[in-house]
Specification:
With 674 residues, the chain is of the alpha/beta class. Among the domains are: 173 residues, P-loop containing nucleotide triphosphate hydrolases (Rossmann fold, 3-Layer(aba) Sandwich), CATH 3.40.50; 178 residues, Rossmann fold; 110 residues, no CATH class. Helices cover 37% and strands 18% of the residues. The chain contains 23 helices and 21 strands. An 8-stranded mixed β-sheet has the order 4-3-5-2-6-7-1-8, sandwiched between helices. Helix 12 crosses helix 13. It is globular and about 70 Å long. The relative contact order is 0.08. The structure holds adenosine-5'-diphosphate. The site of adenosine-5'-diphosphate has 17 residues, from helix 2 and helix 3.
């Protein structure tokens, strides 16, 4: 791809890399950082002494960019060029250029802390500030200082934040690849529209009717809105008078699209045809779509945020930052002067948008990350003073420590336990790794593997949750298992077992409207988890599920294992209220997401904050399993857990678990609508 801006700087880039262990490269999105840097290093011979790794925060980018590079080099994907994402490794002995998610590289560094297999590690898309890339930045800093062989680290960013990264690496060289961005004219709306789907539709049609050729990229917030807008656009475009304007192709683009649908955006349109690409922020910097001349920016993005005070997640539609808005606009000026239509007034941009996006580390639950860092056993530093580009809050570190303590991953002094070490080896969130380990002790590993795999699917595989699904369903799933009154985890298990009994028949999934791709993924994940468990947990055996399935079951062992794995996610039934209250976090009234009642105690997979907070995926557990956890909670001493490392935190300070409200204490009243 000789015409990509970055290629003209090959000599300079290689020279700088030769002379420095760490180099930061700033270049506009689409300048060729992701696809070309690895190939330059390959040409220079860096793949002779090891693999060139390129990390990506998003799975879809790792897959799509590696596919492109394989194509450019004329090799088969999975051979000289491959990718590795969680639960999917398409690399081989011959792989020289490897695209992998930042999470996969973190995991690899557990078994090989020096990362000796790599001659170069490129941390791509550092501007996205994903939690895992932030941790990798800290690890690379240590590694470059210590590793005997000459590892090269390149960090790429599409924004000027690169300067901050260069400072972090003791003012390492920073190369800027001038993008050949054409001017983009920006148009603001007079006011915020009441519906940005409608407003995008109108703007898109205006462009189609009035403006010369050029593709239109529309930024929406999520799959639902994208699907809505795609349908509406198709409908409207079809009703336009034939010959009144050029043909149109309308393409959705988001992370949960099947790969064959994702790559469609890379094929150029036929002549005299305009493409409308309706995308999430995945098209902001991760994937570059060529041919775009018009951008419509809703100004919003869907962001998952975690509140360490309440233990709740929320999936909020929030305003983008100025940096994001400018990235979006920039997509219009790659091939010629473009136009960007912002569906918000300039006042909102100037006064309300944050300058930069809040890094993920400051809006995530850190239990998995803290466990990971503890398991690295880094000498000479207190893990909680790890060298972060932007540190997380004390509150979220405390929250992580409390969660880890309750599930026995760390002891009362904050040191990692042997259970914690085993947990860190599983590519799962701490609650599920803990469940697997416990299930192995109780002889119900097979069932627990299924539950963990079902919960690792990206889509919800429970048939009776979404009301909109219900409407679409052709066959009401009356004869599908219902969890036998024990809740979602058990239902997920039963569904998979039923599919197993039906010889993993695809038609069976279709009949029950279960996403086939999701179910096949679960089967593969289950197999991989089972192999990992056999390696790491002595005496583990994945007994075939059918052996334990005869007759009526109360799933006691599995539920007990889940109770221990989810010890920090417990709720107690409120006898005088219709719902449960959370234990462990600030006491809150919450409902299971199907409004069911599952006995006196439940554990939940996560708490979702909406106007009526609810527990996603619950499992009924028994009082005698809960009591020891409550005892542990009462004795909890946060200050000791953090080894004094969190500064002022004292035992019993506000918000800490040791101040657990007394039974049936004050209940937060919440509106009844969800
Ligand atoms: P950057 O990392 O600087 O944003 P990339 O290397 O991702 O830039 O993109 C460079 C070019 O390669 C763009 O024109 C983009 O459209 C193209 N490209 C990237 N991935 C693919 C793909 N899977 N198929 C086709 N073209 C691609």
């Amino acid at each position: 791809m000789a015409n990509l801006p970055i290629v003209q700087f090959e000599k300079k880039i290689i020279e700088t890399v030769e002379q420095n262990p760490v180099v930061v490269i700033i270049g506009e999105t689409g300048s060729g950082k992701s696809t070309q840097l690895s190939q330059m290093l390959h040409r220079k011979g860096y793949t002779d002494s090891g693999i060139v790794a390129v990390t990506q925060p998003r799975r879809v980018a790792a897959v799509s960019v590696s596919r492109r590079v394989a194509q450019e080099l004329g090799v088969r994907l999975g051979e000289e060029v491959g990718y590795a994402i969680r639960f999917e490794d398409r690399t081989s002995e011959r792989t020289q250029i490897k695209y992998l998610t930042d999470g996969v590289l973190l995991r690899e560094s557990l078994s090989n802390p020096e990362l000796n297999q790599y001659s170069v590690i490129i941390l791509d898309e550092a501007h996205e500030r994903s939690l895992n890339t932030d941790i990798l930045l800290g690890l690379m800093k240590r590694l470059v200082g210590s590793r005997a062989s000459n590892l090269k680290v390149l960090i790429t960013s599409a924004t000027l934040d690169g300067e901050k990264v260069s400072k972090f690496f003791s003012d390492c060289p920073l190369l800027t690849v001038p993008g050949k961005l054409f001017p983009v004219e920006i148009f603001y709306s007079k006011e915020r529209p009441t519906s940005y789907v409608e407003s995008s539709l109108k703007t898109a049609l205006d462009i189609h009717v009035r403006e010369p050729e050029g593709d239109v990229l529309i930024f929406m917030t999520g799959q639902d809105d994208i699907e809505k807008l795609v349908l509406k656009l198709e409908d409207k475009v079809r009703s336009l008078e034939e010959g009144s304007c050029m043909d149109a192709i309308i393409l959705p683009l988001h992370g949960s699209l099947p790969p064959e649908m994702q790559v469609r955006v890379f094929s150029p349109p036929p002549p005299n045809c305009r493409r409308f690409i309706v995308a999430t922020n995945i098209a902001e910097t991760s994937l570059t779509v060529d041919g775009v001349v018009y951008v419509i920016d809703s100004g919003y993005v869907k962001q998952r945020q975690y509140n360490p005070a309440t233990g709740m997640y929320s999936l909020d539609v929030v305003q983008v930052s100025k940096v994001q808005a400018n990235q979006r606009a920039g997509r219009a000026g790659r091939t010629r002067p473009g136009k960007c239509y912002r569906l918000y007034p300039s006042r909102v941009y100037n006064d309300e948008f944050l300058d930069v996006t809040v890094p993920e580390i400051q809006r995530s639950s850190l239990a998995g990350t803290v466990l990971y860092l503890k398991s690295l056993d880094l000498p000479d530093i207190d893990i909680l003073k790890f060298d972060f580009l932007d540190p997380p809050s004390t509150e979220s570190l405390e929250d992580a420590l409390k969660q880890l303590y309750l599930i026995d991953a760390i002891d009362e002094n904050g040191s990692i336990t042997s259970v914690g070490r085993t947990m860190a080896e599983l590519p799962l969130e701490p609650s599920l790794s803990r469940t697997l380990i416990e299930a192995n002790e109780y002889g119900c590993l097979s069932q627990a593997l299924t539950v963990a795999a079902m919960l690792s699917a990206e889509t919800n595989l429970l048939p009776n949750r979404s009301k909109s699904n219900e409407k679409k369903r052709k066959h009401p799933p009356l004869d599908l298992p219902d969890g036998s009154g024990f809740g979602d985890h058990i239902q997920l298990l039963q569904i998979f077992e039923c599919w197993d009994e039906n010889d993993y028949d695809i038609g069976w999934c279709k009949y029950y409207d279960l996403q086939v791709r999701g179910m096949l993924f679960v089967k593969e994940v289950r197999k991989q988890l089972s192999q990992i468990m056999q390696k790491i947990a002595k005496g583990s055996s994945d007994v075939q599920a059918n052996q334990s399935r005869k007759g009526h079951q109360n799933y006691r062992n599995l539920r007990k294992a889940l109770c221990i794995g989810y010890a920090s996610q417990l709720a107690e039934r409120m006898r005088h209220h219709n719902g449960y209250r959370t234990l462990g976090f600030k006491s809150q009234l919450v409902q299971p997401d199907d409004d069911g009642l599952y006995g006196s105690y439940v554990v939940y997979h996560e708490l979702i904050s909406t106007s009526r907070p609810y527990m996603r995926n619950v499992c009924a557990v028994e009082r005698q399993w809960v009591m020891p956890i409550l005892d542990k909670l009462e004795k909890l001493n946060v200050s000791k857990l953090s080894g004094g490392g969190l500064g002022q935190v004292e035992e019993g300070t506000e918000g800490s678990m040791s101040e657990l409200p007394k039974r049936e204490a004050e209940v937060v009243t919440v509106p009844q609508e969800r």
